[in-house]
Amino acid sequence: MSCLRAILCIIFPPLAVLDKGCGSIILVSLLTCCAWVPGCLGAILICTRS
User: Fold this and answer.
1) Is residue 39 within 8 Å of 32, Cβ to Cβ?
2) Using only C-alpha atoms, what is the Rg of the chain?
3) CA-CA distance, 4 to 14, in Å (whole number)?
4) pTM for the whole structure
């Protein structure tokens, strides 16, 4: 994971998973709407797995 992607995961999680597919974007967007921390953690997990 690049430094820019890690910063995006923290600042704006849905933008960080933009290239991972529609399901990832929806999941991270919903988590971010509920609270910022779950969205951030979800984006970090999705970005580090691929």
Assistant:
1) yes
2) 9
3) 14
4) 0.88
